[in-house]
Design goal:
The protein contains 5 helices and no strands. The protein is mainly α. The two termini are 30 Å apart.
Length: 120
């Protein structure tokens, strides 16, 4: 797996964005309810490419950061569980736990490789 994102591009994309703590995270589906009811994913893509509404774009960035952070912590917890299980000779369970730990760390970094949001 090769990480091909240019950090300067990523820094530029997130320069006016400040993540915030979410007590009751709302679904991103609510932002695009109209498009989703029409099963129109191209409409969502067209909207994102054409919008200058930074509130909408920052809300999507928030969801990406939140999801990535959540996946990172799950991966870390699973890694600790793997170490504990493997140390106690529960090798089958430790292998399964290690697999899911890898899966979540891949999901955690996935937002870097996802399509870029427009920025000003």
């Amino acid at each position: 797996m090769k990480f091909t994102v240019d950090y300067s591009e990523l820094k530029e994309q997130y320069k006016n964005f400040t993540p915030y703590f979410e007590m009751h995270r709302e679904s991103i589906n609510q932002l695009f309810e109209e498009f989703l009811q029409q099963s129109n994913s191209q409409g969502i893509n067209d909207y994102l490419q054409g919008t200058n509404d930074q509130d909408i774009l920052n809300e999507i960035r928030q969801k990406l950061v939140y999801h990535s952070t959540l996946c990172f912590f799950r991966s870390f917890d699973l890694m600790l569980a793997y170490i504990s299980l493997d140390d106690r000779n529960f090798h089958t369970w430790s292998e399964v736990t290690a697999y899911y730990s890898k899966f979540y760390i891949i999901k955690a970094i996935n937002f870097f490789a996802s399509e870029r949001l427009p920025h000003n």
